[in-house]
Amino acid sequence: METKVLNFGSLNLDYVYSVDHFVQEGETLSSLERNTFCGGKGLNQSVALAKAGCSVFHAGAVGKDDSSILLQMLDSAGVNREFLKFKDGPTGHAIIQKNPAGNNCILLFGGANQEILRTDIDETFSHFDKGDFLVLQNEINELSYIIEKGHEKGMKIVLNPSPMNEKIEALPLSLIDCFMLNEVEAAAITGVDAKDSEGLISALREKFPKAHVVLTLGERGSVYAFQDNVIKQGIFKVPVVDTTAAGDTFTGFFIGSLIRGESPEKALEIAAKASAIAVSRPGAAPSIPELSEVCV
Ligand code: RIB
Question: Residue 187 C-alpha to ligand 1 middle, in angstroms?
Answer without folding.
Answer: 21
